[in-house]
Amino acid sequence: MNFDFNDEQYMFRDTVRDTLAAQFPIDLFRDSGEPVALEGPLWAQLAELGLFGLMVPEDQGGLGLGMVDFALIAEEFGAALVPLTVTDTIAASLILAKYAAAARAENLEKLASGELRVAFAAYEKNGGYDPSQFSTSLGADGSLSGRKLLVAGADRADMLLVVANDAAGEPGLYAVDAKGAGVVATREATLDITGDYHAVSFANAAAERIGGPDAGEFSLDLLATIAALGLAGIGGRMLDTTVAYVKERSQFGQPIGAFQAIKHRCADMAVDVNTARSGGYFAAWAMASADRAERQWAVSMGKAKANRMAVHVMRESLQLHGGMGYTWEMALHFPYRRGRHLEILYGTTEYHNERVLQGTMAQLAAG
Amino acid sequence: MDFNDSKEEQAFRDEVRAWLASALPQGWGKTVFEPEDEDERAHFRIDWERKLFEGGWSGISWPTKYGGRGATLVEQGIFAEECARAQAPEGINVIGRNLTATTLIHHGNEAQRERYLPKILAAQEMWCQGFSEPNAGSDLASARCRAEPDGDDFIVNGQKIWTSFAQYSQWCILLARTDQHAPKHKGLSFFLVDMKSPGITIRPLTQISGEKEFNETFFEDVRVPKENLVGELNDGWRIAMTTLAYERGAEDALARQIRFKQELDLLIEKAQEVELGARRAIDDPAIRQRLAQSIVDLELMRMNCLREFSKAIKGETPGPESSLMKLYWSHVAQDMADMAMEVLGPETLLMQEDPDTIARGRFPMAFMQSRAFTIYSGTSEIQRNIIAERVLGLPK
Ligand SMILES: Cc1cc2nc3c(=O)[nH]c(=O)nc-3n(C[C@H](O)[C@H](O)[C@H](O)COP(=O)(O)OP(=O)(O)OC[C@H]3O[C@@H](n4cnc5c(N)ncnc54)[C@H](O)[C@@H]3O)c2cc1C
Fold it and tell me: How many other CB atoms are found less than 10 A from the CB of residue A188?
């Protein structure tokens, strides 16, 4: 057993952190207004660092690393509000390598070099969080129909990975050509304005099966894990920003950070961020190494905690900035918006809590 | 990062498991429990610690030269997990093992380590902690209990309070003032005091739970040999900070986590048995949410501890960050104890002696006991001050 990252993992994280701080400061969102325009230059930078090939096997041009290696980077991505098109594409490399390595060799090579963009099309209107309740499905001819919400960068994606039920009602994961016939993406108006999201309708679109129920579930767990890590990053960033602000801002003749009411709230934020990191790292490990039951249990714990932490930390962060916190200019709302997006899209606390309880009860019953 | 056992770790785990199975009485945790009388229970726990020592399970991560196994905190963690699985009794010499020994390893001299550590491991000597005073609780540095040099001894006069387990202890780690004129943090020293010394009086205090674990301890012209001073004269505050960092740190928290998890497992089991009218407690969606939240909170308490272990294995000594551990666990455990009262219906209010009690009155008792979590080892307010000022760097 070993509960820490190794030196290389920390070094890689630092490189990514430095690159993002220099190339992708949060002010860009405020100053540019259109997130899509920011994505291109960033994409090239990340490709140069080899990040898209992080989890692609070495013989297909990648670094051959795994989810634990990606954990600290996913946290940085969260903190910097890197578009979800990036994390979706990196997640896709793991899914394709795991479920369809042979058939997808060419795709993996393109993924590794950053030439292929993938978007996950998972959640639906009136669909909730449980994939067995999704209505997007395959017809008898194997073509896919339905409508998905909140698909990141769907208009620029090359491939869509769609969670859908087959003709027998069994959930699975399907690859659809994003530019193919019967696929229409429409930009949505969303709370999160640090990225672009689309409703995608499929009308008898050609679909290729990547895997059955396990692939669908694994994909959603993977996205939830990346979201949990992203939330830990956002929480950590908002804590740091807040601590810096309360040291600087003076009222009543002293820095507001010298008031105990404020100190104590910062301390509670720090405890929460620390624990959400523990949960995110454990989930990342479970994605890489645990069996299905433990994986679901661990991922849901990590996501449930990340959700509660983020709601708490983001609320406190805004509050402790006073009127400045409420200004567009201060830009705190960008991580706040992204945070709520990650919190709610990839499973609410209540949804994940229920999965945790079921997992624990199964463990107890097994003795 | 790997949460799975290596081959060696698995072998170690198997060995622990087999030993526990042979050392615990038949039916342990099912039909056979700890003694109900508080005093008998304390002695039962001392005996259990001796059994652990005889089995070679004391001081797993301690250096071999003081009688330990010389393994790491990972093995320590595995051992704790297996004890939990077997519902093994708690030890009682926590202050000896986790506070005195760790402090002596950092700040004691070799003679002190050789004299005291093996006896702590063997559970031959129990320890108590004489830090708090009636007028020095959160403001511990204002302690007034005095130690004045006299020949080869110091003479101690003053009063300590809330001294847990003083009645069972052979020794006490004592914080006493040795310079009346220096600033309050600069005039304290750290002593090892023999509780059999003439002039010590212990008066038990009854806790809200009805138990009498802590005491008032009076020192009247108590002679303490100079060789029992730890570190330098007037350097006691710094040394006490090491003690407190361990008291608040991951090793202590992991051992507790395991107890809390047993309690939560028990609650989940009972929630499947108890009916709240038309449905079982476990079938109520609101209750399910609350149980789940405690599961998440407690499992992540373990993850927090394990992450700290890795830092310790890398050689970092615990500092103010240990307040993050303590503040977190004390609140999640308290929340869980509150929640447990609200899950099983009116029967929850029945104590152990009552024929209709659930789980031998464990939940109302744990509820009362859990009130102390946010007070001892430094209150939550003090932990927050420490985190804000010493971890986050906010102005004093
Ligand atoms: C079950 C139990 C066992 C114990 N065992 C031991 C033991 O073995 N040895 C030992 O030495 N001690 C022991 N203690 C004592 C414990 O460490 C003290 O009770 C604790 O440090 C608080 O001190 P106090 O009781 O004097 O409370 P006070 O310091 O009077 O605090 C009262 C309230 O004021 C708040 N407060 C105080 N100062 C501040 C501040 N600066 N900012 C904000 N709020 C503040 C506190 O948080 C608390 O809420 C034990 C206590 C308990 C409950």
Answer: 13
B1 within some domain: no
d(CA B98, CA B252): 7
> Can you give the residue range of the structural domain that contains B37?
7-92
User: What's the total number of domains in chain B?
Assistant: 3
Give the domains, in start order, of chain A with CATH numbers: 7-115 (1.10.540.10), 119-210 (2.40.110.10), 215-366 (1.20.140.10)
User: Which atom number of ligand 1 is nearest to the Cα of residue B132?
Assistant: 11
Tell which atom from ligand 1 comes closest to the C-alpha of B138.
29
pLDDT per residue as tens digits for the range B142-191:
999 999 999 999 999 999 999 999 999 999 999 999 999 999 999 999 99
Query: Are B292 and A356 inside 8 Å of each other by CB?
Result: yes
Kindly state whether B390 is in contact with chain A, defined as any CB-CB distance less than 8 angstroms. no
B221 and B259 housed in the same domain: no
Give dist(CA A317, CA A242) in Å, integer.
6
Q: For A46-55, how does the pLDDT look when each residue is reduced to its tens digit (9 = 90+)?
A: 999 999 999 9
B389 DSSP 8-state letter: I
Q: What is the mean pLDDT of residues B213-238?
A: 98
Q: Report the chain B residue with the minimal C-alpha distance to residue A7.
A: B1
Nearest neighbour of A3 by CB, restricted to B1, B288, B391: B1
Distance B379 CA to ligand 1 centre (A): 6
Q: How far is A239 from chain B (nearest CA, A)?
A: 10
Last residue of a domain, one of B173, B204, B234: B234
Helix B7-23 and helix B73-85, axial crossing angle in degrees, nearest 10: 40
At which of B70, B92, B114 does a domain end? B92
Other residues' Cβ atoms within 10 Å of the Cβ of residue A251? 9
